[in-house]
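Homework help board

Subject: predicted structure for assignment chain

Our instructor gave us this sequence and asked us to write out the predicted structure in token form, then describe one feature. I got the tokens but I'm not sure how to describe them. Can anyone check?
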Amino acid sequence: MKIKVISRNPNTYQRETVDKRNKIVRNFNTPADPFRAQTEYTRALNATKLERVFAKPFVASLDGHVDGVQVLAKHPNRPSTVFSGARDGQVKIWNLASRECQATLDAHRGLVNDISVDNNNGENFVTVGQDAQLKYWKISSVVESQQKTPAHSIAIDGIVYGVSHLSFSSDFVTCGEDISVWKPFRETPLRSYNLGTDTIHACRANPIEENVIVGCRSDRSIFVLDTRQDVPLKKVTMKMRPNKVSWNPMEAYSFTVASEDFSLKIYKLPCVAACY
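My token output:
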């Protein structure tokens, strides 16, 4: 058996006496770019990734945002209409069929936290941002008339992190320090639910039952709230922080939670305490 041992002479790097300086080892034959091989490998790897991104089933790229896209929302009645909000406060309305931008809005100062489209008639949408502003927009005025100002704007005490329209209604719900139910063009919420001191950073209304809302809190918990009651129906504490929540469009009694542990957890509403 052969054993190789790495050893070095202490005389090459230790000083002889305390009064002398420490020896500094220099390589006078260093290449111009010591990480040339690593750099080329990274470039080749990125090129391979981009080739896979732009390969099938990749269809198109919607360019136009200057900053990173923070949130996406789809129109409930028009599958080809999509809304996007960026970190610089810009909101764009896209037509997927023509792959063109129909309107660009400087909606908020700071990033756009969430966008929700009216489920009742599909003619209005609401945006909330990091600037503690809730803005109500008319799609026809924005797209056809190129109007850049909102139809209604509300300054809120505290940051709103999420917004979702109730099913079969123009009313919508927001989340932040609490859960609030709003009517269009109203300065104050209809109802507010204080669920504790922890921030509620995501909420979604049930697509069938207009009184049922599911949300995520910063204390690693998810909750199901019935707006006809004062307290949540159920609260489940997860091992890691939940990031987003979405209802199943085909089975309205189940919803999916995106967790911080790189996993998606599916819950059924009748037995929300058990994950499958």
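Reply (TA_rk): Your tokens look well-formed. For the description, you could write something like this. The first strand starts at residue 69 and ends at 74. That's the kind of observation they're looking for.
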